[in-house]
Amino acid sequence: MWAAFIFIFIVLWLFQLFMTMRQMKHYHQTIREMSKHSSGYLGVGVEKKKLGIGSALIIVTDLEGIVIDCRIMSGVTVFSEFKNCKRFIGLDVFKLNVTDYESKYQLVLEMAVAKIQEQKNRVVSNL
């Protein structure tokens, strides 16, 4: 009986490990794909939770800060994948009021915008 329980536990643990690696590969592939835009800024916001729904948001803007591509991943399991997020496309990230959006977007959006602002400041200071 115990042998069967231990075997099932090991199989499930290995399955989770495999799916986690698959999700991380998808995450890095999406980042690489979105960073291929010829010019502009890329911002990533990630909210990890021990219990509950975590989320990740990737935003690509042009040099003026207008969102040209956006992807979001939200979920509890390792089966979550990035989906196109059209809600922010065409908006100016430097004029966004983060509190205007649902709470599930607020933290990741704030983090992504902060990363874009850092990149813009770095470029401006190097000129």
UniProtKB/TrEMBL annotation:
Top-rank taxon, per record = Bacteria
Protein's organism:
Ectobacillus funiculus
Protein's recorded name = Transcriptional regulator GutM
Against Pfam families, the record matches this protein to:
GutM
